[in-house]
Structure formats: C-alpha cells, structure tokens
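User: I'm new to structure prediction. If I give you an amino acid sequence, what do you actually give back? Let's try with this one:
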Amino acid sequence: MESAAQSSSSDVLTLHRRALLALNDMNIALHEARSLDELLHVLVVKAFEGLGFDRGLIYMVEGEYLRVAAAIDLIRMEHGGVIRRRIGYDMTRENSVEIEALRTRRLIHVRDARRDPRVSPKFRYATSNTPEYCAVPILGRTEPIGVLTIDKFYSREPIRDTEEFFLEIFARQIGVAIESLRWSRELETLVEEKSREVLRLQMFLETVFRNLPAAIVTMDAQGRLTAANPAARALLDLPEITGPRSVSSLPEPARSRASPVLDLLEQCLRGRPVRERSVRLPGAPLRLLSVSTAPLQGGAGDPVGAVAIGADVTEKVKIDETLQRMDRLSALGTLAAGVAHEIRNPLAGVSGLVQILQGRLADVDPRGRLVEKIIEEIGRLNHIVRDLLQFSRQGRSGLEVFDPAGLIDRVLLLCRRDLESRKIWVRREVPTAVPPIRGEVPRIQQALLNLVLNAAHAMRGGGELTLSIQPVPVSPEDLEGLWRWIRGGEVSDGAPRAVVLSVRDTGEGMPEEVLNRVFHPFFTTKRDGTGLGLYIVHRIVEEHSGVVLAESQVGQGSVFHLVLPVAERDGGAP
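Assistant: Good question. You get back a string of structure tokens that encode the predicted 3D arrangement of the chain. For your 574 residues, that looks like this:
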C-alpha cells in the first residue's frame, strides 16, 4: 500500500517536472513564434508531449463564430501534427461545451462525452473511442479569444486534476502569445503603412523642395548650411549642399552673393527672425529678394536650426516702378503742359520788349551783346515750350498701318552721318516677317530717333549700336510677361500681340538711381540737354497704347524697348 502511494507521488512529481520544463520551453518558443502555424507547432511539441495528450482542436473567436483554427494529432502527424479544418459553432444560435467554456472562462472537464448533454453532436463522432476530454478557454489579456479541446485519444489514460491545472496555465500562455502575435502583426502593418505615408510625404516634400520657384536655404544650430534647393543655388550661386557645410568653406563668389540671406539666417539663430525683408544681392545680374526666416524645431520643440525662404521680386519691383513711373509721368505731363501754356504768352511779351530795346541801342553799344544773349535764351525757352505743348497734346491723328522694319531704316538713314562721325558701328536685327503696327509714323519715328541719338551720345568713344525688332505673344499691358520675355524666360505660345523695337548701346550705362528718373521731364545728365527727349518718347509710346521698358548696367551699356501693339485686323483681332 505504501509502495503504491510512493509510486503515485513519484508519478505526480514526474508530471510536475515535465510540465514545468514544457512551460519554460513553450514560453521561450511562443515569444519567438512569428505566425499562427508556428504557435500551433509549439503547442504540439511542448504542451502535448509535456503533459501526455495526443489529440486536440484549437478554436478561435471570429466575430459571432467559434471556428476551428487547427486540429492536432500527434500520431498521424499530418502537416507536422497540425490539421486545418474550417468547422465550428455559431455562438448566437448553438450551445456546446466549447461555447460554455468560452463564456464562463473556466476549464470544463467532460467525463463522459457520450452522455453529457452539453456535448454538441458535431463533436460526438470524435469522442466515440474516448469519452473524456477537456475544453480550456484561451484567454487574452482582456477577453477570451479561443478554446482548446484536448484528450488522450490513443493512450486512453484518464485526465488528472493536476493536468487540468497545467492545461489552464498552458492555455493562458497560448492566449497571451496569440494576442501578442496579433498585436505584433497589427503593429507591423501600422508601421508599414506609416512608413509608406512618411515615404510619400518625404517624396512630396522633396518634389516641392526641388521644384518650388522660391529659394529655400536651411542652416543648423551651429551655423552650417544643410540644404539649398535648385532655385536657391541658381539665385545665390550656391553649390549643391550634400551635408552640413560651413559658410567659410563656400567659394568666394557664392559667399558674397548669398551674404544677405546668410546674415538673416544667422540673425534668426540668435532669435531674430524676419518676415518679407527686402534684400539686394551683390553682383550681377541685379536681383531683389523678399526673404522670410523662421526657426526650425526638433521633436521636443528645441531649436535645431533656421530656414530662409526668398522670393525673387525683381520683376515685380520693376513692374511696380514702371506703373508708378507711368502715373507720375502722366501727372507731370499734365502739369508741364499747363505751365508751358501759361508761360508762352508772357514769354512772347518779354521777347517783344527785348527786341524793341535792341532796336534802340546803337550798333557800338556794348549792351547789345547782352541783349542778343537774352534773345537767344528766350528762343531756347520758346523751343522748350513748343515741345511741351506739342507732345502733351491729347488725341492722335493721321493713324496708319505701317511696317516697323521700314521705320528703322528711315531712322538709320537720318542718323547715318552722325553715327559714322562718332565711330559707332550699327547692327540691324530684323526678322523676315514682322507684324505691322498702327500709329502716327512721324511721332513714332521721332521716339525711335530720340532713343538712337541718346544711345549715340552715351558712346563717346565709339561703340556698337543694335536696333532690333521682335514680335512677342504678350500684350503691352502684361508687364510681368514682358519682363519675363526680356529676361529670356518662357512665355505662352500664340500669335504676336506686340512688336518690340529695341535700341541697345555699349556706352557707359546708368546707375539705378538715374535709370529710375530718365523719363521724368526736365531730368538730364547732359550739360546742354533739356531733359525732354526720353519724356517725349514715353508720351508718344503711351499715346499709342504701348510701353517703354529700360535696362542698364554701369560700364556695360543700356537698352530701351519700345513695346507697341500689333495692328488689328478687320474684326478687332490682332
């Protein structure tokens, strides 16, 4: 009797030892499993062999259904002991031991499956040779996720109470592992989706960064350049930035050209960001930027650098200046015409009185020379007044459609001797087909003649004068499009809407402050000039619904563009 008790105790210890070893091995293996098949294989090898079970079913909750995820048979060992079967229960309409174990979250030990009314008819065929089995809920961290039914079909040994204890522990471990695997899969899926989103966002931002017309430059907290988009490299002459680069390592032309933007970035690093600050880039060509800076922050909100965004507003500034100049000139023209009209009559009276005085002086009177000088200056004033009245008049008469190429030939013929005496070589650039324009030929000829004479006077030691004609698909009202065309940029295709007559010289050029005032009446840089030549050009072109645009670089020369609309065909279309 005592020997039998010792044997039973020894069997229990052996079971405990095997179960604990199986639990330890299963715990390690479960955390390494990456799929449900791997988990089931762990269950086969560890749980069944460790506890002496040889057959079982694993059900998983799928919405309102409890479906068999796998059937395990150690003896048959089909597919490694794991046999797939898509059978199960509708938990809303059926009752079974498995459903009860799931709902009560308790292990149910069926002693005789043939007589237990809770056993579903679906399961009775599987228990015909072994009426005893256990249904163990597989619990997740918060709710049941499945059921394990397990028996000793081949050995026909009874299921001990101690084995029930270890079965519950096994099922709990399996539940945690399955739930962790699901979460891991969901996390991996989420990470993949977020990675794709980050990649798409990165590609989007990279595309915007590369193609944005505004210049973008970034600097880290140490004052090193970290990025510059193509627009910034083109505007600021910067090299491609492939990694943090100190400002001092930039080549001198780039460092000088970009210095205004770099200075604003360094100010931003010191806590002084700016918004739409206008800066002028050193060197040529002339470029005006509107620059805004902002600090860059890391994930924790700490400052990690600064970014500068600069928009090229050169053309916008020129357009604004042109519009302001046109408004000023219009007002000044009206004022000048009024003043000239009021001066003309008193001036005529003064001239008559001086002539009377001259007649009363003897030929030998030394005061006669002074009177002659007065009459000469009065004549000069009369010439100015006559010009003002002529070119300030409103309305046009004698309009005709003509070929602008012929106009260039006539002007060159009038100036030929003067240009030859000044050793100025003339280049004529006229395409074979030029759209006609409509206007007063003498007045437009006068405007072009004034520009040619001004260009000749600017080339004191000789040089090259270029007269060119170019049809453009841009109307004179579209100043932005005209400046873009002048700068060599792309404009929309289409029929010519304007003709540009350009006069280019290789003279001294003009500083910006002079260029901004050349169309003002009475402004001149010549000792004997009246300051009306370019003002008259502006008035003539304006009256013909055109515009005058000017460019100049000191030491390189100037170019004036007369932009006139093409003559309209019958029906009003150009």
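You can read the tokens as a compact description of the fold. Here is one thing that stands out. Confidence is low (pLDDT under 50) at residues 78-83.
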